[in-house]
Automatic annotation (TrEMBL):
Domain Gfo/Idh/MocA-like oxidoreductase N-terminal: from-to ranges: 7-124
Pfam annotation, one family: Irp3-like_C
Protein name: Gfo/Idh/MocA family oxidoreductase
Record GO terms (molecular function): nucleotide binding
Residue ranges of domain Thiazolinyl imine reductase-like C-terminal in the record: 147-247
NCBIfam families reported in the protein's UniProt record: thiaz-red
The organism of origin for this protein: Brytella acorum
Amino acid sequence: MSALRPLNVVVAGTGFGRVYLDALAKQDPAFRLTGLLARGGTTSRSIAAALGVPLYVAPENVPDSTDIVCVVVRSGATGGPGSELAAHFLRRGIHVLQEHPVHHDEIAPCLKAARQGNAAYAVNTLHPNLAPARRFLAVAKVAIQQQKPAYLDIACNSQMLYPLLDLAGRALGGMRPWSFGEPMAGQGGHPLTTLHGCMNEVPLCLRVQNAVHPDDPDNHSFLLGQMAIGFEGGVLALPELHGPVLWHARLHAPRTAEGRLITSGPATERLAEPSTEMLGPPPGDSWHVAFEETWPRAVLVALHDLKDSIDDPVRRRAANIWAMDVSQCWNEASQRLGMPAIIRPDIPPPIPLDALHAAADSIASTEGTRL
């Protein structure tokens, strides 16, 4: 495939597919949006018209000159035809980036179709490619070179389980072997269910809000995703997928011959390090920025990874194995958790940020005085 021209990309789906369209609107010279595949409703027609690209209402109508199709249509795991679409294009020799979640029983025929068409295929879990998550992965790699992880903590909602397990596997340098124990429901109304297990020989604690609003599945979660890796020297934490990345140095002070802790002076150099250090820039972007900038740029990272694998059989094979591992791990964890509970809560009221700042500032203003 020529590297002298941008790759022609068609996006299938106009729901979450809008994030992919926003990604291609960033004018990355490696890619060019050349069409939209949708059912032909009013929304898809207006989007195609606004973008100045053709609207295809059947996969057979997508031209063979297409290099990549981004399949952002629900897979069979969530009741959609996304995997059938992916296999159709792969058999035609068109490379496919498919949005998660995808069951491993659907990935297998997609890989067969990819071999038939000599095409590259990848499942996009999006969130591990967010800039803060990539920063977390970079730091984790360095930390693991120094020390073996002691434990891994993950907290997420049920929809984010797939990408969080992907992120965990990347952070640990692999997923296998993995295992999950019996679920422990939250007590006293606590909304998170706990699974203990192991990933890549690292003890794992997974807490999941296993509940969904059937008419509003993208809302009503207490959190998207959090992750922490414990080491002998401290804890590397990603308290929110949009950052920041934090390093919590482990407290350890020497003792005198009488058993008293030594908190200053010789042999206490490690106590001079910050107890918590932010690695990289601080967070602060709004959800508007996340939707318009952060998420689309994560899509571009996935597209570049797919592009790099097109002419590299080794990368392609590794991506295929990884996609199967992530899906199988997710499936086993999901089976342990069981079906999400159905919830129909009211719209959550916001807590005014000004009030939180005022409360924090009231403590800062009294430092150095007796309360």
